[in-house]
Amino acid sequence: MRNIFTFFLILFSLFSSAQMDTEHWFAPMFSNYKSAANYQAVYLSTSETTPFPVKIYSGNNLLGTVSLSKGAPQIFEIPRQYIITEDVSEVSTIQQKGLHLVGDKKYFATLRFSVHNHAEIVTSKGKAALGQEFFIGMPRLNATVSSNYTANILAVENGTTVTLSGYLSGLIFTNDSTISSTKTVTLNSGESYIFDVDEGTNEALDGLIGAKITADKPISVSNGSFSGRMAETGVDIFMDQSVPVEKTGKEFIIMGGNGNFPKSEIESTLIIATKDNTDVYLNNETTKYANIPKAGGYIFIPSDKYQDLDGANNIYALYVKSTDNVYVYGILAGSRDQEMPSGGMNLIPALSCFLPSKIDELSEVNRLPLTYTGPQSSVRSEEYHNVKLNILAQKGASVNVNGSTSGLLGPFKVDGSADWEVFTLSGASGNQTIETTDDKAITAGIAGGSGPAGFGGYFAGFSSIPSISKIGDCARGQMLEVDDFYNEYKWEYSTDQINWTILPDTGYQINPGKNFGYYRVTVTKLSCLPAQTTKNFKYLKCPTYSNSEFTAGACNTITIEPIFTKNPTWKADPTKTAIIMKPSSGKAYVGADGKIYFEAENTTDEQVKFTYYLEQQGTEFPEYEEITVTVNIFQIKPKNTEITECIDYSGKGYFNLKKSFEPANVNSNYTGFEYYTDAAFSPQSRIPDSEISNYYSAPGKTVYVKISDIYSCDNRLNPGKIQLKTYELPQVKSIDVKGETSAIIEIEKGRKLYSIAVKKGKHTQNDLPPDFAYQQFNTDRANIEINGGRGFYTVFIKSADNCLPVISYFTVIAVNNVLTPNGDGYNDSVEVPELHNKINPVFQIYDRYGKKVFEGNTLNNFTWTGKSGGYNLPTGTYWYYMTWQDYDGAENDSLQGWILLKNY
């Protein structure tokens, strides 16, 4: 929440009323504010001295387990994808996001999260947050393209139908352009759904305030804005967990935040009616402030209606009383200097003497890691912040914080309330325990603004209305319970809600066993008479658990009739049939015909499991069944092969594809093999069956094999492969000719033994020597004999693979000693054309006085005709000198001698 035109950032985030419980839920949220600096974690604390485990789930995924006890609170960081999404495609669609925390004993849970410049805290109300009817609350925003409203749903039971209604006509939802008066979705346990309205598609952003959410089974709801804008600058996060209508009330005290009272621009109170024709009264006024004519209607009360309790310490409060239950949200500022861009929101609990007398213990009340932009655009990090603790207590209560009254201001009287007073403690930090020593009721919250961040909100309060909740599950055993701070408990049981039987249990918790029916309990708190009786709680049967197993191919679809295992004559309610555990791969769903379908979708898994849920139709206490289906999926798993063959001089060879691949891929479920030159198995690339045993191809290619199975599937997504290879041929590294009688051949690559044959003259692949002409060498340096004297030679080299030989050439140099250039065709010239095949050749002729008379080169073809400079030389003896290299880097070879020239 940053004012982009200033360097000073103030951020305000809210604790809503936290509630100790054994289970907590957090619905996922959609953020349309992009940030690279993100933090999200659950903060857990308890009053229990004996350590116990708390498991953190998202859908069916166990994210982790922590051990919790008093004095040892825990922080568990949540991977962002489980609780916050920025993906529009995940809005208005069923997802498995959100958190479910399960512990053996009661504990507090808060979700604290931040993005760059902004932060928020959502506190769980435990099972008190679960319900079937809600009205949505959020501030009225200054409309910009970055503003949004959001209502987030998390289901806790299978087959839960959720309906959103009562929003502004024509409202367009993110990722759902269908305009309708209601939105309905059916969720299973652990599934979530986000309703989002973005200013980019709506002109009336407040059209979602007061909208109604109903469900046929309990759900958890959070609402607010992840990027709400109330000022011309700055974007804030306003988010809180809601409670069902029955957990709201008629009497409230709202403590001000850190705004500029008495006329703060942002500080206000939102009131939403749950019944038609609801009157609202403020402070000690006898005239009603407003009438809200319709359920879902709302009003905002400005800051100038707040009472000045201690202006010097910025302590202001508002007293609200209504004729019917209402939702009350406090819109607060985190800073007096930057109040507009530092907004936050929290749901206010109703006052009740049934509130607890001790809040034990709140963890790390001033901690929330945050990255923000400070002065001169510097990027800063802050983890701990300054806060003040606000306490609401019954009149005359003896209040202490962590066993002390030091620094505690108050009590302050709030006009309009004869029964409640206010205390404040500045500089609260770390773990906090607030209590009264005289059994009077309290609730507490924090408010602050320490520069970069602020916090505010209440702890405890929403369980003040007695209600029964179920803990445990069918596997571990189930208990029914209410809060444990009452003095007396009277439990009753009924099968028809008419005739009631008093049960012998007198504690806050009972074990109903298999006695399915209706339960209620009357609780007595001696300091809060008269006694109260809870609403009737419907305790249902546990489901039957069964299993079934199928075998299919990777391309198949399985159809399952939804029949009860225990009694096939029972009829399943098709509207309740649901997939409650999705397969790890493939797709399981309930078809329009009510049947269960599983599509393998060419999964590579060999086994997948999913669970579907059946609920009996037409009975008050239906039977339930959860059937876990195991699908064994036959996978075609080709064993790839390779073929190595010799190739001919055209670079191709013959490959037996069938012999290479099929013996390596024997399986009784395989029905056929087809061979292709491309992995897509295009028809034109299929190799004819007549060629698969003698396939003519260049090496370095891949042949792809399609395998069919008895399930009419194939492996087109994982084709078999045959790599076509050839043997590594030997290479002649060098040939070093030693005079006229031998040569040393250096060979590399290929495999020993090497076979070498030499033929005089220039030969080709069409004139290969017979096998007996080859000599074998078990070395890469072969010394071969030369028997033909001067001339051109062809050498043939094979490796041990006995493929066609590699052909190379060398020359043997010699000089004729007689030169008679008379044109008779005999000895008319001295020719050494073999020097063309040598490196750095030199051919020179000298007379008997040492004068060079001829220089051979490529232009004269290394040929001397007895002339020098175009003139005939006289008869006599001349001397020749030659030098060359047989290969690059070789030692120089040289040859010298005399030539008798006879010129006529």
TrEMBL record:
<dbReference type="Pfam" id="PF13585">
    <property type="entry name" value="CHU_C"/>
</dbReference>
<protein>
    <submittedName>
        <fullName>Gliding motility-associated C-terminal domain</fullName>
    </submittedName>
</protein>
<keyword id="KW-0732">Signal</keyword>
<dbReference type="Pfam" id="PF17517">
    <property type="entry name" value="IgGFc_binding"/>
</dbReference>
<dbReference type="InterPro" id="IPR026341">
    <property type="entry name" value="T9SS_type_B"/>
</dbReference>
<feature type="domain" description="IgGFc-binding protein N-terminal">
    <location>
        <begin position="128"/>
        <end position="444"/>
    </location>
</feature>
<feature type="signal peptide">
    <location>
        <begin position="1"/>
        <end position="18"/>
    </location>
</feature>
<dbReference type="InterPro" id="IPR035234">
    <property type="entry name" value="IgGFc-bd_N"/>
</dbReference>
